[in-house]
Amino acid sequence: MIKACVIGWPIEHSRSPIIHGYWLKKYGIDGSYEKRAVAPDAAESFLRNLEQEGLAGCNVTVPLKEIAFAVADHCDPSALAVKAANTIWLEDGKIHAANTDTYGFMTHLSLEAPGWKHPDKPVVLLGAGGAARAICHGFLEAGVSEIIILNRTKERAENLAKDFEGRGNIRAGDWGDRVRCGEWASVIVNTTTLGMKGEGDLGVDFFSADPDCVVCDIVYVPLETKLLAEAKRYGLKTVDGLGMLLHQAVPGFERWFGVRPEVTPELRQRVLADIGA
Ligand code: ATR
Question: In terms of pTM, does the model score above 0.90?
């Protein structure tokens, strides 16, 4: 029996066991995937003991992604670019790490809005945390012409832009610019916590937005955030946050269990039922 798990602190909210459990059953694999609450000060020893625990690897969620990156013996380019890891596996006794959030976001975006790329209009990222970093890397890899990062704390946006300096045209803008960014952005991505259940709203106004602007949110509870609902109201193409969660799980499952799994409408339904959407 092959065993994997997801670690985080706290971990109760994680939907990863639903996703991997669905695939294990679907592909008839003798395996298990559980949640494990691991405190930050216990994360390093947990990761160094994967083999003794009988684990093929694990997913890593908040707030342990940076620790996983630091502990890994070998990081693939996705983890190196983001400086954080969410997928861990063992190879020849060594800890290998990847960051599949980039893959998850870009795959979902390309499936939902295949024509998203514009030759001369910028992509706007709202937020400058770890998720923004992963998505920034994805857009740079995809060769976008310009990325503008808007964050409440501008200094964090400037630091993020600086980190990716030399890889493309990327800069920080003013947080206030978000209100009308639909007029000039090709794609807008919310990576902040605003729009989550119980949090405030972003206050983006799509009244005079370009009809070709694509609006994405990585928040998936609720599935239709106020940002997405407003964008839809003005007829814009929207991309929800659930697809990123589903697609980011694919590479890990393949590593541990040896089958490249498929993200299906049935899987999406399964997770939606858990969210209560
Ligand atoms: P993650 O690593 O998951 O992306 P994070 O590092 O905690 O999460 O980042 C959260 C993001 O949401 C940040 O960009 C944060 O802005 P600040 O850098 O100014 O803190 C943003 N955010 C959280 N609450 C916010 C609020 N009330 N208004 C505006 N932005 C907010």
Answer: yes
